[in-house]
Hints:
alpha+beta; 3 domains; 8 strands; elongated
Amino acid sequence: MSTKRIYGTPEERFWAKVNKTETCWLWTANRGRSGYGNFRYQNRQTRAHRTAYEWLVGPIPEGLQLDHLCRVRHCVNPEHLEPTTGKVNTLRGTGPSALNAVKTHCSQDHPLDGDNLYTWKNERGCRSCRASNVKNYLSRLVEKSKTDPSLIPHGTLNGYANWKCRCVDCSLVQSKYDAAYKIRKKAEKK
């Protein structure tokens, strides 16, 4: 396999590796695993689309990244590139984050808005499904606890408290235990 070495200015080397079609300008040389074209310029590896944008349009604003409006990662046409924030770039894509962001209903067809929507660690969830899952989990624990009561770790369901827990049920059991302990200690002193 022979490779043709291209000598000349960086611009000549760059444009020799571009195939201009009616819509996209496709990078025909080395591409990384992610599909973006790579170009060696000024003794460092750069992304081909970034190089083309900077040469033909200007510098990319600080804190922004280039979004391929055509959705072709090895396209270097600056008309198909738009500087955007990382969030906007991600949400315009077709990855899991973008697909989940446009969902209006959960898998059980409950609406993901209003009082039924909760967010936790930048994730959206369905309150109806969560309540149903918790109820099912607790009912399974109650069934299991008929043979072993220590399986339910919290408060009023079994009368035992998880002493590291600060939930309402465990706090109630702890306060009852503390009150009984104080009464016992006073009785022992008399």
